[in-house]
Amino acid sequence: MLSGKTAIVFDACFGFYSEDYFREMLVMERKRSERSRKPFLFVMVTIDPSFKIPRDSQFSKKIKLFINTSTREVDIKGWYDRHRTIGIIYTDYNSQAKETILAKIQPGLDAAFGPDAARGMTISCTSFPEDKKEVEKKK
Hints:
Elements: E1 10-11, E2 16-17, H1 19-36, E3 40-47, H2 57-70, E4 76-81, E5 85-90, H3 95-113, H4 115-118, E6 121-128, H5 132-138
Antiparallel strand pairs: 1-2, 3-5, 3-6, 4-5
Helix pairs in contact: 2-3
């Protein structure tokens, strides 16, 4: 794993996977999903670049609080872009669960960071594998 690199797999400060390992997990999950046709939801929470991220334990505690309130134990969490974008892979979900999952994220950010700071974060999501009908519409 990690293409022969020696790297840190787990970011203990924040309680989830490092960027390199998380990206590798995302690739593996996409392949699994395409092969099995079992969907997953990939969510990114991007912290506004103008927000000066403090390098203290309080910030990491807020990140951990957000992750704990917005994910399940089986979901894969990590840095998609270190100290800028948190990636979450919600495994074994269905289309009805997507709205429920997304409805938990903003309140989780508000609870962890406060509404003002949470407004400076962008939430984006993509489902994998793409639905065949959706792909046809794009052509």
